[in-house]
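Researcher: I need the complex structure. Ligand is heme C. Inputs:
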Amino acid sequence: MVGIKEIGKKSVARHIMLGVLCMSCLLTTGFVSTAQAEEPIPALTSSDCIKCHAKAPKDIAEKGGAHKAKVTCIDCHAGHPPNVMKIIPQCSQCHSGKSHYELAGCLQCHSNPHTPLELNLAKNLTAPCLTCHEPQKVQLNQFKSHHSTFDCTTCHSKHGFIPECMSCHQGHTPAMVQADCKNCHKAHMPLEVTYNKDTDSKQCAGCHKEAFDLLMANKTKHHDVSCATCHKDKHKTIPHCEDCHGVPHPAGIISKFPKCGGCHNIAHDLNNVTDHAAKTTKPDVKITTPNIKPDMKSSKSNVKKK
Ligand code: HEC
Ligand code: HEC
Ligand code: HEC
Ligand code: HEC
Ligand code: HEC
Ligand code: HEC
Ligand code: HEC
Ligand code: HEC
Ligand code: HEC
Ligand code: HEC
Ligand code: HEC
Ligand code: HEC
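Model: Output:
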């Protein structure tokens, strides 16, 4: 066998090598006409290529994919210099009929046809991705956010690579981890915040400290109800008391006092209206209600009344 070195196009060594090869190898494979010109030139087969070309056969063997399984060297390279000079195929010889195959510069991304799925993606690609992934662009367009201004490969720097949100952002609380983000956000429409009913109230607390603190301090059964149970599914949803409680009091009372909050205060800081009854069932407890403890608000209003 010949010393197998890759033959660079501009290499001087190649000429020397070619000279040697002409004698040793090509004579038998028909590159050069021999004395017996009337003999048919034996065809070059795909198994001959490796005698002079190391890299292409190696690339194909390792990562050729369908270009290894479905085609051979000579399906793509018909003939060989000097007999046939133009032996680099056009991709369109075999790939046509999809918008993806109308793109310019196939080799810009598929930089090595012998390893067709090893892609070299530039940092500013969007349009070519849409030949296969339309829905993501639709989402980015329909739900405008800063992400809508990015190219696809700003985030997907390699094909199929999914970036972590936290490679560019921080969580809303120190305890928040990457896996939490997708409970509330989708990358292509990040401001359309939705979440499931099991969402831990602590995740809301990072931005709604006041609501969280009130609820945690509250002594009624609302204390045990999570934010996501009341503010269901979609961010900024505000429920009505009646959604969960229906009409809990006789119509007469409701018509005189139409606002639940008039007696119960707000949902996060629900008045402990049943506290008196609850405590009187326990013998040791003094009958005082926590709500009469004057805080800043109530003392102010007391002053005004005077
Ligand atoms: C005896 C050695 C030898 C064998 C066998 C050989 N080649 Fe080559 N090949 C060369 C040399 C030398 C060149 C450079 C020729 C030139 O640029 O003029 C070359 C160039 C090429 C090129 C580049 C052509 C271009 O236009 O840039 C391709 C493609 C190629 N060979 C494919 C093959 C394939 C496919 C086979 C097997 C079917 C094969 N070769 C077998 C020696 C060989
Ligand atoms: C699917 C088509 C296809 C197959 C199969 C294929 N090639 Fe190629 N090959 C190409 C194309 C296209 C180029 C030009 C690449 C470029 O311009 O960068 C090329 C370039 C080459 C070159 C010159 C540049 C280089 O990489 O050194 C050689 C040599 C070569 N091929 C050899 C082979 C051999 C040997 C085989 C089989 C083991 C093979 N090719 C199989 C399409 C193919
Ligand atoms: C001689 C025909 C031929 C040529 C020329 C050719 N291909 Fe292919 N290619 C195929 C076949 C056949 C398949 C397998 C397709 C299938 O199974 O549907 C394939 C598959 C592929 C794949 C998928 C590989 C995989 O493993 O799934 C890519 C990517 C590809 N080709 C890119 C190219 C590019 C880029 C060019 C031009 C540089 C090119 N092809 C030139 C025949 C060719
Ligand atoms: C902007 C980058 C880019 C350009 C330009 C590009 N491709 Fe692709 N191509 C891709 C990506 C990404 C894939 C998906 C690879 C995968 O599925 O792993 C792909 C897949 C393929 C496939 C296999 C899947 C399929 O749908 O058939 C073929 C064949 C293919 N390309 C051929 C071509 C041809 C031919 C051209 C030029 C007309 C071309 N590509 C231009 C990026 C590109
Ligand atoms: C030729 C069609 C084609 C092109 C062009 C293409 N893709 Fe893909 N892409 C696919 C296919 C098929 C899959 C699913 C198979 C897989 O996981 O590799 C995929 C998977 C993905 C995934 C991973 C999906 C997951 O669920 O993990 C991302 C992200 C992606 N592509 C982004 C891109 C970006 C960004 C571009 C533009 C640079 C692009 N694709 C161009 C065909 C394509
Ligand atoms: C490659 C970096 C990068 C990645 C990855 C990334 N983002 Fe962003 N994102 C940004 C930049 C830059 C901005 C605009 C500046 C800012 O608001 O911080 C932004 C803005 C946002 C915004 C505000 C949008 C607006 O228009 O105000 C949200 C929400 C967001 N990102 C969530 C996410 C989530 C969730 C993920 C993961 C699914 C993620 N981001 C992944 C870079 C990134
Ligand atoms: C801000 C970064 C960012 C940008 C910009 C971005 N993606 Fe994504 N993409 C992601 C993340 C993160 C995921 C994982 C799913 C998620 O978190 O919603 C993803 C998922 C995907 C998937 C898998 C299927 C899916 O929808 O979940 C595809 C395909 C995809 N992106 C393609 C694209 C395309 C095409 C573009 C350009 C039009 C694009 N992406 C722009 C970050 C981004
Ligand atoms: C419990 C739900 C929830 C979780 C979990 C969550 N976010 Fe958010 N995120 C939101 C809400 C709600 C907004 C405010 C949206 C608005 O302003 O309309 C937001 C806004 C953002 C913004 C815009 C800038 C800002 O801080 O206001 C970024 C960036 C962001 N989130 C990234 C992330 C990342 C990264 C993660 C994962 C570590 C994450 N988010 C987890 C609900 C959540
Ligand atoms: C990244 C910060 C952030 C996170 C996390 C967050 N929110 Fe918000 N939330 C906001 C902002 C900003 C507003 C708009 C405030 C405004 O309009 O005054 C808002 C508004 C709201 C509103 C509507 C207020 C009104 O007056 O209409 C509700 C309800 C709400 N959030 C509930 C939640 C719940 C429940 C969670 C957890 C699942 C949560 N938020 C997580 C930032 C956040
Ligand atoms: C998403 C459903 C939901 C909404 C909206 C809601 N609540 Fe409740 N509420 C509950 C649950 C669950 C309980 C506990 C019931 C139990 O454990 O028996 C509760 C308990 C109560 C109690 C009894 C407290 C106790 O400790 O005994 C009162 C009073 C009450 N809610 C009033 C209200 C008022 C007033 C509003 C509107 C400002 C409201 N609720 C909104 C779900 C809700
Ligand atoms: C029992 C149901 C319930 C729970 C639990 C609940 N909320 Fe609310 N929330 C409401 C109702 C009802 C309103 C409308 C004001 C009112 O009538 O009390 C409201 C109003 C809000 C508002 C807008 C007004 C304001 O106070 O700023 C925000 C923001 C909010 N809630 C966030 C949260 C967060 C964060 C949590 C968890 C820590 C939470 N809520 C838990 C029912 C609830
Ligand atoms: C006039 C004052 C007043 C108004 C207005 C009022 N409530 Fe009440 N509510 C009370 C009192 C006092 C109790 C505790 C005594 C009891 O259990 O009947 C109570 C109890 C409740 C309970 C707990 C019932 C149970 O079985 O534990 C719920 C739930 C409730 N109210 C919801 C509401 C809702 C929703 C509204 C508005 C539609 C409302 N209330 C309006 C005074 C009021």
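Model: Summary of the prediction. Residues 1-36, 276-306 have pLDDT under 50 and may be disordered.
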